[in-house]
Amino acid sequence: MLLTLHKSSLSENIPKIVITGSKSESNRLLLLQALYPELQIENISNSDDSEVMQKALKSTSNLIDVSHAGTAMRFLTAFFATQTGREITITGSARMKERPVQVLVEALNMLGADISYLESEGCPPLLIKGELLSKDQVALKANVSSQYISALLLIAPKLKNGLELSLEGEITSVPYINMTLDLLNQIGVKTSFEGNTIKVSPLKKLNTHQDILTVESDWSSASYFYSIVALSPIGTEITLSSYKRDSLQGDSVLADIYTDFGVATLFNNNAITLTKQADCQLQTVNCQLQNAPDIAQTIAVTCFGLGVGCHLTGLHTLKIKETDRLVALKTELEKLGADLHITENSLTLKPHKLFIADVSSPPSEGLGEDTGEAISTYHDHRMAMAFAPLALKTNLQIEDAMVVSKSYPTFWEDLKTLGFKITQ
Ligand SMILES: O=C(O)C1=C[C@@H](OP(=O)(O)O)[C@@H](O)[C@H](O)C1
Ligand SMILES: C=C(OP(=O)(O)O)C(=O)O
Question: What span, in angstroms and rounded, lies between the C-alpha atoms of 403 and 384?
């Protein structure tokens, strides 16, 4: 579906936006619930990726299709590897068949699993013959995706002797590993993470008092509202729920990063209020995003909308996500007139004055002649959501807009409640 976003300004009275649960926390807890059925989960994500995970865990079929869900592919590979007596083919979208899983498959096979590739070496689809994993120590590369490490950690407490992982190379997306360990701790599993060694003790059964866990709302989804506030006039406020100060999600670093754009975050009970307090004073924003790769697109587009430059580093994992996000950002921002340069792991955007003339002009009432540029989304929810806030500056179109359902199915409805004018 092609959506047209007419140049908009926000409504006077913005209702509180309730954001669905974190898909990262949800998919971990769903897997743990499959291992420990007594576990109860509240505020589970309504994202496609979490629905895929729930369906796969309930399925009795020997063919599992996870579509675009990276965490589901990685976590379920580890899960089915331990399900003795089952033989599963796990597959996904065309892009999923290009996203590497070799590091995980090799580690599982070293532990005693029986996993083979059905098409390309190193990528899904996989044939998994469930086995009792006999070993309890393995080394693996930690600089490609933290999801491989989380996948192993999630099944670890059900292995006879637990598991010891030795991580090789620079560890990427560390907060996601810590999230996995924290959730394991919350259900009573003992873990340690010292230097490059992670140890997980076995846990046969849950203790009864550790049985209800509440998923915090998704911080990556909150990023689009940070961007909207940053691109709005001073005084603009948006309240989002349910969030907490001590989040397990690394993307909560947004609250710090967006102070550079003049956005303050106030925590109040279970909500956060984002307020535009000042204009961005920087000519160029520098961010190291190795620990928060999913907010790179949001930040790059915020900078573009503000006319501010940015130098974003630590982006090597962006090339193997839903699309090559570095190339996608370059192509789409250039359509809008941006001057930017990408490398294998960084993005540099030059400051510009493209929207200066627009600032004083009132938002257009109708579409007029100009629909604005059509932004391609490459089956990537974050391309659609990261570009949407630019409708505060210009008309634009978003191709294949329903792609947002991968993590945030009600995104467009929520934008309409803020005052965005959106038509099909
Ligand atoms: O474990 C997780 O829930 C995730 C880990 C990250 O992936 P990488 O570790 O591959 O960077 C992140 O980008 C992804 O959206 C979710
Ligand atoms: C990269 C992402 O997800 P996954 O790797 O789980 O497909 C994402 O949601 O930005």
Answer: 7
Q: Is 370 a catalytic residue?
A: no
How remote is the CA of residue 68 from the centroid of ligand 2, in Å?
A: 8
Q: Residues of 387-397 as b/e, b for ≥16 C-beta within 10 angstroms?
A: bbbbbbbbbbb
73 with 92: CB under 8 angstroms?
A: yes
3-state secondary structure of 243: coil
Domains delineated in the chain: 3-20+216-423 (3.65.10.10), 23-214 (3.65.10.10)
Residues 6+ apart with CB under 8 A from 279: 234, 262
ipTM value for the complex: 0.99
- Ligand 1 — pocket residues by CB below 6 A? 24, 71, 145-147, 150, 172-173, 176, 293-294, 317
* H helix intervals, 6-133: 23-35, 48-58, 70-81, 102-111
pTM attached to this predicted model: 0.96
CB 201 within 8 A of CB 191: yes
Question: 359: CA distance to ligand 2 center in Å?
Answer: 34
Mean pLDDT per 10-residue section of the chain, whose length is 424 residues = 94 93 98 96 98 98 98 98 97 98 98 98 98 97 98 98 98 98 96 98 85 93 98 97 96 98 96 96 96 98 97 97 98 97 98 71 52 95 98 97 98 97 94
> Which residue out of 294, 324, 400, 414 is catalytically annotated?
294
Q: What contacts 385, CB < 8 A, 6 or more positions away?
A: 221, 224, 298, 404, 408, 411
Residue 99 annotated as binding site:
yes
Cα(191) to centroid of ligand 1, in Å? Answer: 20
